UniProtKB/TrEMBL annotation:
InterPro entries: MetI-like_sf. GO terms for cellular component: membrane. It comes from Schleiferilactobacillus harbinensis DSM 16991. It comes from the Bacteria. Keywords: Membrane, Transmembrane, Transmembrane helix. It is a multi-pass membrane protein. It is found in: Membrane. This is ABC transmembrane type-1 domain-containing protein. Its main location: membrane. The chain crosses the membrane at residues 25-45, 66-86.
Length: 87
C-alpha cells in the first residue's frame, strides 16, 4: 500500500491498538515517577548546597559558586554546536 498525504478514510484502529495494551499506562507511570522523584531530589540537593553557600563561612564557597554559575551559563548542546560550526 502506498503512502498518501490525504487519507482515503478515517480510522481509529491505531488508538484502539494503543490503548488495548498496558504499555502506554506503564510509560506514563514511569514518566510521572521520574518527574516527581527528580524534582524532589533536585530541590533537596539545591537546598542542601544553598544553605552553606549563603552563610559565607564555607572555605571554598567562592569557587563552588563560580562553578555552579558558570555551568548554568552554557547549555548542554553549546559546545558540540560550536565544534560543528567551527569545522
Amino acid at each position: 500500500m502506498a503512502f498518501t498525504f490525504i487519507p482515503h478514510s478515517l480510522s481509529l484502529a491505531a488508538y484502539q491498538i494503543l490503548f488495548e495494551g498496558k504499555q502506554i499506562f506503564m510509560s506514563y507511570g514511569v514518566t510521572i515517577f521520574i518527574t516527581v522523584v527528580g524534582t524532589l531530589l533536585s530541590l533537596i540537593l539545591s537546598a542542601m548546597m544553598a544553605h552553606p553557600l549563603s552563610t559565607g563561612r564555607l572555605k571554598l564557597g567562592n569557587t563552588i559558586n563560580f562553578l555552579v554559575y558558570f555551568t548554568t551559563l552554557f547549555g548542554a548542546g553549546l559546545v558540540p554546536s560550536c565544534l560543528l560550526i567551527s569545522k
